[in-house]
Predict the structure.
Amino acid sequence: MSRIAEKFAELKRRNEGALIGYLTLGDPTPEDSLKLALCLAEEVDILELGIPFSDPIADGPTIQGAIDRALRAGTNTDHCFEIALELRRRGVEIPLVFMTYYNIVLQYGEERFVARCREVGVDGLLVSDLPVEEASHLVKICRKHGVDMIFLIAPTTTEERMKKILRNASGFVYLVSLLGTTGAREKLSELTIEKTKWALQYVTDLPLAVGFGISKPEHVRAVIEAGASGAVVGSAFVKIVEEKGSEACDELRSFAAELKSGTRLG
């Protein structure tokens, strides 16, 4: 059983959902990014780490800004692997997921990239612009190295395509609950709850995590109560880093603890 599967099983026994927190690696600098990731790892169940890429088409302005800061600080893919390895060396035991774009993986070399994930302790890989129809080779490599390949599903995903994704996915399935790009919203859309329940008709053998627009404890609670196994929060954490920079640790911890309270159903 993978570290991701073990985490979801542990949380299920405690009648909790997973809080999955995202940060862009290298923001504001690679050194500060390590410190901030260590802080956030204290309060979230799974840490999703973005590898910066020059054309982040799935990301809204907040995460685009973080990616720009990271790239201007000189962050590259090897830095990201080094940060993940250092998180493990410093005692972080929760699952780590890399979120990136296919060009990063392709340029590094698929086999080399996934093998390096395994070596540094990265448990899952989400390649946001790689459609399942073109992912079979990478899925095969991930299975070989014991790295979970996580796929996105959207409100527009057809039943036929959903089945194809579920045949290839492992770890968890990530529901993009809204059309558009990432970004915090004040109010949780009714469509998010509707689409969570819709997705659960198909996603029965893997945990379902819901993201895009989730930024408050009540948002987290709503998707967990709707049946999701986890909630993904990204832009709201990245916004704190944008505002506080290297001094963001305390606020990241306290905000994550607030959000985590929304995952507890017991």
Summary: The beta strands are 18-24, 46-50, 96-100, 124-127, 148-153, 173-176, 208-211, 230-233. DSSP finds twelve helices and eight strands in the chain. The domain at 3-261 is CATH 3.20.20.70 (TIM Barrel).
